[in-house]
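Please fill in the sequence for the structure shown.

STRUCTURE ENCODING:
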C-alpha cells in the first residue's frame, strides 16, 4: 500500500520546524519593552518574552520552554508563569561582553578583604581566596580547550531581578512583569563547546595525524560528541524546571529538592541511557568517597596528639 504523499509532506514540514523554525505563536510586541537588547530582537510568545538574534534561535528556546512547562504542570499540578529569556546563538557575542572583567574585579576586591581580615585577626590558617579558585578554574578550562567566554555562552543560568537590572542594564519595570528570567544557549553553542573539548582531548594524547583523523571518525561513529551535547543541553531543561519549583513558596525545601531530583533523574535516563547514568553515578560515588576521606584526613591532622595535649596541661 502506497503512503499518502500529503502525509509525507506534513511529516517533512514537522521535522524542518523541529530543527529550525520561528516560535509557533508570536504575539504583538509590547511597545513599552525594549525592542532590541544586546543585538537580540524581542519575540513575544505566550510562554516568554524571548530576546534572540534570529527567529530560529527564538523558536528553539520557545519549544524547549513549552516542553518543560508541560512536564512541570503535569508533574506538579501547578501553572508555570511567563518569563524573560535571553538566548545566545553560535554567532552571538556574550550577553554581557565585560562579564569576565566584572567578575574578576569583584573577586579581587573579595580577595583583598579576606587578606585584610586575616591580618587583623592574626589568623594562622590561610583564608579562602576566591581569586585563587577563579584562576584554578580558568586553568582547568584551558586544559579542556575552552575559554571562560565559551563557558559563559554555553551554560544556562537563572537571572535574579537584581542582576538583570544592574549588570545587564535591563529596565526593572519590565523585569517585574515576568515571573522568572533566564539566560539560555542554543544547542549549536553547546555543540561548539563540546567539539572544542573533544579536539583538545585528542591533541593532548599526542597521537599522529592519521591516528587523530581515525579518532575523529570513531567519535562520530559512536556518537560520543552528540551524547555529551545532549547531556549538557539538558541543563537548560533542568534549570528551567528548577526555577518553577523554587518559585512555589508553600513547598518545603525538602519537597522542592525531591521534585527537582526526580525530574533530573528521569530526564537524564531518557537522554543519556542506562549505561551512561550508571557511569555518572559511579563517578559521583567515587567523588563523594574521596571528599569524605579528605575531610577525615584534615580532621585527623587538626586533632592534637595525646602526648602533646598532656604536656600543655
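FILLED IN BY: designer on duty
SEQUENCE:
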Amino acid at each position: 500500500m502506497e503512503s499518502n504523499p500529503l502525509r509525507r509532506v506534513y511529516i517533512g514540514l514537522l521535522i524542518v520546524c523541529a530543527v529550525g523554525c520561528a516560535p509557533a505563536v508570536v504575539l504583538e510586541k509590547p511597545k513599552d519593552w525594549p525592542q532590541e537588547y544586546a543585538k537580540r530582537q524581542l519575540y513575544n510568545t505566550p510562554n516568554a518574552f524571548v530576546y534572540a538574534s534570529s527567529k530560529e534561535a527564538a523558536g528553539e528556546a520557545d519549544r524547549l520552554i513549552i516542553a518543560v512547562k508541560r512536564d512541570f504542570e503535569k508533574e506538579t499540578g501547578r501553572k508555570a508563569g511567563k518569563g524573560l529569556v535571553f538566548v545566545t546563538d553560535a554567532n552571538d557575542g556574550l550577553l554581557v561582553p565585560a562579564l569576565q572583567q566584572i567578575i574578576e574585579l569583584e573577586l579581587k576586591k573579595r580577595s583583598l578583604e579576606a587578606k585584610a581580615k586575616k591580618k587583623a585577626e592574626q589568623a594562622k590558617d590561610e583564608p579562602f581566596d576566591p581569586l585563587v579558585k577563579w584562576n584554578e578554574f580558568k586553568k582547568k578550562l584551558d586544559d579542556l580547550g575552552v575559554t571562560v567566554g565559551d563557558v559563559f555562552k554555553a551554560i544556562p543560568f537563572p537571572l535574579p531581578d537584581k542582576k538583570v537590572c544592574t549588570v545587564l542594564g535591563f529596565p526593572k519595570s519590565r523585569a517585574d512583569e515576568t515571573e522568572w528570567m533566564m539566560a539560555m544557549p542554543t544547542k549549536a553553542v553547546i555543540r561548539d563547546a563540546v567539539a572544542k573539548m573533544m579536539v583538545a582531548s585528542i591533541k593532548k594524547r599526542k597521537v599522529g595525524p592519521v591516528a587523530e583523523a581515525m579518532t575523529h571518525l570513531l567519535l562520530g561513529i559512536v556518537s560520543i560528541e552528540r551524547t555529551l551535547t545532549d547531556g549538557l543541553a539538558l541543563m537548560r531543561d533542568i534549570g528551567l524546571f528548577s526555577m518553577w519549583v523554587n518559585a512555589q513558596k508553600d513547598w518545603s525545601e525538602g519537597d522542592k529538592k525531591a521534585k527537582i531530583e526526580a525530574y533530573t533523574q528521569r530526564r537524564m535516563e531518557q537522554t543519556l541511557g542506562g549505561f551512561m547514568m550508571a557511569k555518572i553515578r559511579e563517578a559521583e560515588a567515587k567523588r563523594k568517597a574521596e571528599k569524605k576521606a579528605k575531610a577525615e584526613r584534615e580532621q585527623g591532622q587538626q586533632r592534637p596528639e595525646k602526648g602533646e595535649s598532656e604536656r600543655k596541661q
